[in-house]
Amino acid sequence: MQKKVWIGLEGMEFYAYHGVYKEEQVIGSKYIVDVWVQTDASLAQQNDDLNGTVNYELIYDAVKQNMQVPVLLIEHLAQKILNTLRTFIAKEDVIKIKLKKIHPPLGAKVEASVIEIED
């Protein structure tokens, strides 16, 4: 029987230029991204072999690549990251992404706007 584990990267920080407002596209904002993958890592656990699990470096590279291409909405950005991750993460594995835009320009102090998606 397969035993699923959660593997993830938390707190990936990027400075990027996403947003609906012109100032966001020019000034930019700090973003924090967490990615979790639920997978069967039993081969990695038993054999100490990277081929039996999800490669963290590939996850980071996928997020970084998408963070560099400006979009208007964080909902769209999260979906683009998910789509890229799906190119190398098995369909039966669950992917969870949490994306935070730190201090969005809303006219008051707001810690972050957040989206969390799972597939």
Descriptive account of the structure:
- The chain is an alpha+beta fold and 119 residues long.
- It is built from four helices and four strands, in the order E-H-E-H-H-H-E-E.
- The chain has a four-stranded antiparallel beta sheet.
- Helix 3 runs antiparallel to helix 4.
- The longest helix is centred in the middle third of the chain and has 12 residues.
- It is elongated, with a radius of gyration of 16 Å.
- The model has no long low-confidence stretch (mean pLDDT 94).
Ordered list of secondary-structure elements with their pairings:
Layout: E1 4-16, H1 22-27, E2 29-40, H2 42-47, H3 56-67, H4 74-85, E3 94-102, E4 112-118
Antiparallel strand pairs: 1-2, 2-3, 3-4
Helix pairs in contact: 3-4
CATH level-two architecture = 2-Layer Sandwich
Structural class: alpha+beta
Whole-number radius of gyration?
16 Å
Total helical segments: 4
| Strand adjacency order, main sheet | 1-2-3-4
End-to-end Cα distance, whole Å, is 22 Å
Q: Which fold name fills CATH's third level, the topology?
A: GTP Cyclohydrolase I, domain 2
**pLDDT averaged residue by residue:** 94
Strand segment tally:
4
